[in-house]
Design a protein that fits this description.
The protein is of the alpha+beta class. The chain is built from six helices and 13 strands. The strands form two sheets. Strands 2, 4, 5, 8, 9, 10 and 12 form a seven-stranded antiparallel sheet that branches. Strands 1-13-3-11-7-6 form a six-stranded antiparallel sheet.
């Protein structure tokens, strides 16, 4: 039964859960100056329907670029040398919103909970939010995976992003697949255009606006190990676990700035909470 005060309850104004006014703000002026001095030191091509790992030292820049056609990528980040500290998409979403762009930070998991990376340039920042409520670079999708695929469609699909990232991490770390898999986590969906339907609140995707030459760039606040999957859905205009969608490679480039351009920048320390939880 609908209560008499139903409309009054619905009319209660929302409150932002995590006001970010007190968050330490990235020095975008510093990063912009450092970007003018970049020298490429590494690059990795991520093949369609596959994934690859790469390293980004603290104080360096990483750029993910569409090179042949519209393609989305699923990004995992770990602290180099400690797979337990990894990208925390849920807390990043709580702090910055459902989609991220220039000036937003990618945060790590408990107990370290610190900035792993700061987004320094986004050629798709012009997209904003469309009339469907869609936007680009989401931290709401989990990654396409073989378990959900089996549940909804049956069969054994091995080239979804979860499996791609698992294989890539296992190969990079020289560990068995079953040991690598628990370290694969919810992603930053690079270039993916997504949102929630207004009527049912369901997660949706639509054709990505990315074109060859578009890129997302971030500054590594700590030593990073990255994993990127070129999603089997291509631009995700139809489906995201598919052997028929047009798929393209993604280019990962790592750049070193002139150290002098970073001034007094220092890598952020782990979170200052004592960890005793009241005991």
């Amino acid at each position: 039964m609908i209560p008499d005060d139903a409309e009054a309850r619905r009319a209660v104004k929302p409150v932002i859960c995590y006001p970010v006014d007190m968050l330490p703000q990235p020095d975008m002026t510093l990063y912009t100056a450092a970007r003018q001095t970049l020298r490429k030191i590494d690059e990795v091509t991520v093949l369609p329907r596959d994934a690859a790992c790469f390293s980004v030292p603290a104080g360096h820049f990483c750029r993910i670029t569409s090179v042949e056609g519209p393609q989305v990528g699923d990004l995992n980040l770990w602290a180099q040398g400690d797979l337990k500290e990894r990208f925390y998409s849920g807390k990043t979403r709580a702090l910055h919103g459902t989609h991220v762009t220039t000036g937003d930070r990618l945060w790590s998991s408990f107990p370290a909970m610190r900035p792993m990376a700061t987004i320094t340039h986004d050629t798709l920042d012009w997209y904003g939010k469309d009339s469907f409520g869609g936007s680009v670079h989401d931290v709401i999708g989990t990654r396409c995976d073989p378990y959900t695929h089996n549940l909804l469609a049956g069969g054994q699909y091995h080239h979804c992003c979860h499996s791609n990232l698992t294989r890539a991490l296992a190969a990079h770390m020289d560990m068995p697949v079953e040991q690598a898999e628990p370290h694969v986590h919810d992603v930053l969906n690079v270039f993916m255009c997504t949102g929630f339907t207004r009527d049912t609140g369901q997660y949706f995707m639509k054709a990505s606006p990315v074109r060859p030459g578009d890129y997302l760039e971030f500054f590594a606040e700590i030593d990073l190990l990255g994993g990127l999957s070129a999603c089997p859905g291509g631009d995700c205009s139809a489906e995201h676990s598919s052997d028929t969608s047009a798929c393209h490679p993604l280019l990962v480039e790592v750049f070193a700035p002139d150290p002098a351009s970073l001034g007094n920048w220092q890598s952020p320390r782990p979170n200052g909470y004592t960890g005793n939880h009241g005991t």
